[in-house]
Amino acid sequence: MRINNYISSSGYCSRRKADEYIKNGKVKINGLKADIGQNVNDDDIVEVLGKIIVFKNIPVYISFNKPIGITCTTDRKINGNIIDFIGYKERIFPIGRLDKDSEGLILLTNDGNIVNEILRSSNNHEKDYVVTVDKNIDTNFINDMSNGIKIFNPVRNEYTITKKCKVAKINNNVFKITLTQGLNRQIRRMCNSLGYNVINLKRIRLMNIELKNLPTGSWRHINKIEIKNMMDLLKIIK
């Protein structure tokens, strides 16, 4: 395991902070100064600021039904952050995010190895959302949303075409959409491009993990079968 993941998984600090400690020479492996990206074996002794780090080899996977108003951040200085809201006894972090004004399924874990595999859009992992808009949905709306929408990317200062996706009408102003990418506020921006405003947005599935009847504001541990199926999709052996 890479040294930053090792330190992060111990609950000592975030991976970013671990990289800072490593860069500044504050981390040692078997008494020697550690390097960025260095691997750690089971019998290695890791120290941060002179303190021996004990790796907790018990991965945690949580399914949470995020309410509107909760922010998906580990920064506990922010009011309404997801970590304080859940109040889990060990250090965990959200996999990706949902906007503050969106609700529904978000996964949290202490396993840094799976995060990039889940979030990388090239892996085509599906996410289902139920969306309510302010006007009646017609056939043109469904076809346009399905075939890709031209939206502006402020990070790159350019326009991009969203990937083709599955869209199904539920009733006059509610539809279900399945995405395999995760651009910032993507669904809202797609709808805005077609002259629609999102009234409510709720994620109900990520890969094989479904929200089902989990109450708003509640969380549960993902069961062993779900974890195995998720790891199979990620092609990770646990």
Which features does this protein show?
nine-stranded mixed beta sheet, alpha+beta, elongated, 238 residues, four-stranded antiparallel beta sheet, Alpha-Beta Plaits
Walk me through the structure.
- With 238 residues, the protein is an alpha+beta fold.
- The chain has three domains: 3-52, RNA-binding S4 domain (Structural Genomics Hypothetical 15.5 Kd Protein In mrcA-pckA Intergenic Region, Chain A); 61-120 and 212-234, Pseudouridine synthase I, catalytic domain, N-terminal subdomain (Alpha-Beta Plaits); 126-206, Alpha-Beta Plaits (2-Layer Sandwich).
- It contains seven helices and 15 strands.
- The strands form three sheets. Strands 5, 6, 7, 8, 11, 12, 13, 14 and 15 form a nine-stranded mixed β-sheet that branches. A four-stranded antiparallel β-sheet has the order 2-1-3-4.
- β3 (46-48) and β4 form a beta hairpin.
- α1 (3-9) packs across α2.
- The longest helix is centred in the last third of the chain and has 11 residues, at 224-234.
Q: Radius of gyration, Cα only, in angstroms?
A: 20 Å
**Structural class estimated from helices and strands:** alpha+beta
Query: How many β-strand stretches?
Result: 15
Poorly predicted sequence stretches spanning 5 or more consecutive residues? none
User: Architecture of the largest domain, according to CATH?
Assistant: 2-Layer Sandwich
Mean pLDDT: 91
Shape: elongated
Give the C-level CATH assignment of the largest domain: Alpha Beta
Measured as a percent range, the helix fraction is: 10-25%
- Span between termini: 13 Å
CATH superfamily of the largest domain: Pseudouridine synthase I, catalytic domain, N-terminal subdomain
